[in-house]
Design goal:
single chain; 133 residues; alpha+beta; five-stranded antiparallel beta sheet; two-stranded antiparallel ribbon; 7 strands; 24% helix
């Protein structure tokens, strides 16, 4: 089971550990627009599938998912919070799962699949639209 260095030491509740393990189990799965299956996932299909593994049902699209849950200020981000990104028009079009230490995991068309990125990377820093718990 692959996780980020230092992640194992985090004292997460069991359901959050299971969510992170599920999220990492999809590493390398190819990106597919509209994809909801382990053979190909888009960002919101990926987040939806990971959260469903712990019994939480989320809407299908990032634009709908950001409406669910409590807003989380950037300084209070915790592992398993959902992070969201919007284009210049403000439309939320991308999502991922926060892992801690500035990292998040997501299904990314530019990375060609499920990958770990940093919130401080240029594109993600510019497009950051908020987080939900």
């Amino acid at each position: 089971e692959q996780t980020l260095p230092g992640f194992e030491e985090l004292n997460l509740p069991q359901n959050q550990k299971r969510l992170v393990q599920t999220a990492f189990s999809y590493l390398g799965v190819p990106y597919r627009w509209g994809g909801t299956q382990p053979t190909g996932l888009d960002c919101s299909g990926y987040v939806q599938r990971c959260f469903r593994s712990i019994g939480i049902d989320l809407p299908r699209t990032a634009h709908e998912q950001i409406m669910v849950g409590s807003p989380v200020p950037p300084a209070q981000l915790q592992p398993t919070d959902r992070v969201y990104f919007a284009g210049g028009d403000g439309y939320v079009s991308h999502t991922g799962i926060y892992l801690g230490n500035g990292y998040f995991i997501h299904s990314s068309s530019s990375n060609k699949g499920v990958a770990v990125s940093r919130l401080t990377e240029g594109m993600y820093a510019r497009m950051y639209a908020g987080a939900r718990r």
